[in-house]
Write a structure and sequence with these properties.
355 residues; alpha/beta; 5-stranded mixed beta sheet; 18% strand
Length: 355
């Protein structure tokens, strides 16, 4: 073969290369629903912790993902169950009921439920508030009068028998009040023991009545703080009975409230629930802890307040049609992200350092 023939063959091969079909990326349809900070739209872009996670999984598996944002959580899952979407990702709790009809990835987030109240419904029991209550002021006034009257009666009984009380009326009222106050608080003065018969009888009665005076102070403070706690905010799940509680239909929060036999209003979506909450119709919300905490730090700042610690710990996962061959590949990608620190980087981006 001549040199000219070799060049001709080479040129022919090179010209045929562009005509060779390139391997296309596998397109994967991912259903999602708006659940800040896991999945939301900002400036027309799909953003959030789960969206970032899915893009990284897709990059590692050379998937060409198409985000399909639907209107409701139920629709998102039903389309996956029917095979109309390849998977779904948002804040999907791993439950036995869902696992029975679909397949989950390994957990991608640890979550739980919390209670959110209106900011103006928050009222923590306060010692200062109890001390400034009218009931306590009344008790202090009554005690002051009793001690003043008791001291002046002792002055009448003891002014000729006890040097401490031997002073004119205009000078005697405060020393007499001070004597009665010390009698109640400290049990009296050894060097100023009543000497007259009536003074000793009255002194004993005053000591006994001091037990009542002290108990009034303690009872009033305790009662004031107890009333504040009763009339104040919801502090636990047990306080939800008989109150208007809102959550999302079909959510794990709704299932929890059903099991506890707590009445609630079920909303079709998060937007409807928060709109009703902001309007003041629903005063208490039970839902996913990270979603509520994100809300009170952003759009709900000054409106909502998340109470206490999370309860009913649960885990989120990516959900697939039953028998999907993509589950194993997704799990390998998620494990590699855990191992190389990528997952931790995404977590810190959206939630900060782990507590």
């Amino acid at each position: 073969m001549t040199l000219r023939s070799l060049w001709f063959c080479l040129i022919t091969v090179l010209m045929s290369l562009p005509a060779l079909p390139l391997r296309a990326q596998e397109q994967v349809v991912v259903n999602t629903v708006t659940r800040p900070p896991f999945s939301m739209q900002v400036g027309g872009q799909d953003v959030g912790f789960t969206m970032d996670l899915m893009r990284e999984v897709a990059r590692r598996l050379t998937w060409d993902i198409k985000i399909n944002r639907v209107d409701s959580f139920v629709q998102m899952l039903e389309e996956v169950e029917r095979g109309e979407a390849d998977m779904a990702a948002a804040n999907i709790s791993i439950t036995a009921g869902r696992e029975a009809v679909m397949d989950f990835s390994q957990p991608i987030f640890e979550s739980g439920l919390q209670i959110m109240l209106h900011e103006d419904d928050i009222s923590e029991p306060s010692l200062i508030a109890a001390l400034l209550s009218w009931d306590l002021f009344a008790a202090i006034g009554i005690a002051f009068v009793i001690l003043l009257v008791g001291g002046m009666l002792m002055w009448i009984f003891e002014r000729r028998a006890q040097p401490y009380f031997d002073r004119p009326l205009k000078e005697a009222w405060f020393p007499s009040f001070w004597w009665a106050l010390n009698l109640v608080v400290n049990g009296g003065f050894e060097e100023r023991v009543p000497r007259s018969f009536l003074g000793r009888i009255f002194g004993v009665l005053l000591v006994l009545s001091s037990l009542f005076v002290v108990s009034v102070f303690v009872a009033k403070i305790t009662a004031a703080m107890t009333v504040e706690a009763i009339n104040g905010s919801v502090n636990s799940v047990n306080d939800l009975y008989g109150k208007r509680v809102g959550t999302i239909q079909g959510s794990t929060a709704a299932g929890f409230l059903d099991r506890r036999e707590i009445d609630y209003v079920a909303f079709p979506g998060l937007g409807e629930l928060l709109k009703d909450f902001e309007a003041g119709e629903t005063r208490i919300v039970v839902f996913d802890s990270p979603v509520l905490n994100h809300y009170v730090k952003t759009d709900g700042a000054g409106i909502g307040h998340v109470m206490g610690r999370k309860f009913l710990t649960e885990y989120y996962g990516i959900i697939f049609p039953q028998g999907s061959d993509r589950v194993e590949a997704a799990n390998r990608a998620l494990l590699s992200m855990q191992e190389d620190g990528t997952y931790e980087t995404l977590y810190r981006k959206w939630f900060g350092s782990r507590s």
